[in-house]
Design a protein that fits this description.
Length: 454
């Protein structure tokens, strides 16, 4: 039961194969058994989840189902407000905090009838690393508990990959949904900037923060996005799951090889997985050709300057008054923001606009881009220098900077058994085409069917 997708759960409810209460109790038992090893949850709301399941059961069996996610369990990254619960951001700084109202995205998912199982671990304030000097232990990779699960949405990735939950929420400012998706072998979607509300989500870098779904299948990610997304302008609500089964024949895919072949030199197994993915998409009827964007270093430099400055504006007072309450890793990442000037911020913003224009220009020739995600498989969780080295070897940050939607998918296994991942990038507000290509790749490959043995 714990490996079922959200879509399969909804079908099971309709057929009365099992009930929301039965499913929720089963998953809570699994959380109680496995969380001490993988540390995905920092708090579990047993009573609230069971009560929500009872209410969902009565409504669904009474003919009042709210939609395909009614009664489906969800985990929430502990940077997102849920009324009456702490939002600690995995930090001593906010241990006493209690949210007085739901974040906007939580309000929408509550209205969809989802069951909130608890709060999930993260890197401190969504910028630290896997630290051992915090109130909660770091989440671990279910494929190998000695390895890093990615971050900063580490608990979200670990929980979904371990079968503790079918769905979770993550946030993504420099790749923090797509990195855990890569390390843990799941699906992680960063939608177009501001398609999902950030109200009630603790700010890291306001001009690049995104909230998004983490799931084991593309269909589940699309269903969760349906419930999360805000209207775009005068556009009618979009059903992001509607086109998932459509052929991708004739779609134009640009393969951004230079990110992982010259700008960075990816691990050979990562490069092979990307080349194989290009062949799969071509076999499915897409026209795949090499695409070129500005150098990866240009994106990373502009993103780093903007993020550091914006992070400092959030944390300056606490860093001056309570520096000892941050993990050492987090302090090292935040403090450089104190030394940036307004002129440097403006220059970085000017570079950002040029880079956005360059990516938009590329999309005149392509419908979707195939891009590296992480350049390396997950490293050991206790190897901080390697975590720092490998985290900067990635191609996720460009699309936080530009705001384009991007999805991470499992693309194979390394020789050590850890997942490999790819990234697909779409035009702004064209999540439908992006998800369509991702779903076609998923159907044609076996990777989403693999699970870690716990």
């Amino acid at each position: 039961m714990h490996w079922m997708t959200a879509a399969e759960i909804a079908k099971g409810y309709r057929n009365k194969t099992f009930s929301p209460v039965e499913l929720t109790k089963s998953l809570l038992d699994r959380v109680d058994a496995l969380n001490p090893a993988c540390n995905a949850f920092i708090s579990v709301d047993h009573e609230g989840a069971i009560e929500s399941a009872r209410q969902a059961e009565q409504a669904i069996y009474g003919g009042r189902a709210l939609g395909p996610l009614h009664g489906v369990p969800l985990g929430i990254k502990d940077i997102i407000d849920v009324a009456g619960q702490a939002t600690t951001c995995h930090s001593k700084i906010r241990l006493d905090h209690c949210a007085h109202q739901d974040a906007q995205v939580i309000s929408k998912l509550r209205a969809a009838g989802m069951i909130f199982m608890g709060k999930l671990a993260l890197h401190e304030f969504a910028i630290g690393g896997p630290a051992f000097d915090l109130p909660f232990p770091p989440a671990r990779n279910p494929w190998n508990l000695g390895h890093h699960p990615g971050g900063s949405s580490s608990g979200s990735g670990a929980a979904v990959a371990a079968g503790l939950l079918p769905l979770a929420l993550g946030t993504d400012t420099g790749g923090s949904i797509r990195n855990p998706a890569a390390c843990c072998g799941i699906v992680g979607l960063k939608a177009t900037y501001e398609l999902v509300s950030r109200r009630g989500v603790f700010t890291l870098s306001s001009s690049m923060d995104h909230v998004g779904p983490m799931a084991r299948t593309v269909e589940d990610a699309a269903l969760l996005l349906n419930a999360m997304a805000e209207p775009h302008g005068d556009q009618q609500p979009v059903d992001y799951a509607a086109d998932l089964s459509r052929s991708i024949k004739g779609l134009r895919v640009g393969y951004v090889r230079h990110f992982h072949e010259t700008d960075e030199i990816a691990h050979p197994e990562v490069s092979s997985a990307l080349d194989e993915a290009a062949k799969v998409l071509s076999h499915l009827g897409a026209t795949v050709s090499d695409a070129r964007l500005p150098a990866l270093s240009q994106f990373l430099t502009a993103q780093k300057f903007l993020m550091l400055a914006e992070c400092w504006s959030v944390h300056a007072q606490w860093l001056r008054e309570r520096p000892q309450d941050y993990a050492q890793t987090t302090r090292r990442k935040l403090l450089p923001g104190a030394f940036l000037t307004a002129g440097e911020y403006v220059q970085a913003m000017q570079m950002r606009h040029l880079l956005i224009d360059a990516v938009d220009q590329a999309f005149k020739d392509y419908d979707v881009l195939l891009v590296a995600n992480s350049m390396d498989p997950a490293c050991r969780i206790d190897d901080e220098p390697e975590i720092v080295r490998t985290y900067t070897r990635q191609a996720r940050m460009p699309f936080n900077l530009t705001g384009h939607p991007a999805i991470a998918l499992m693309a194979g296994q390394a020789s050590n058994g850890l997942p490999l991942s790819l990234q697909l990038v779409g035009k702004c507000y064209d999540e439908s085409s992006l998800l369509r290509v991702a779903a076609a790749y998923e159907r044609a490959t076996p990777w989403h069917l693999l699970h870690p043995e716990l």
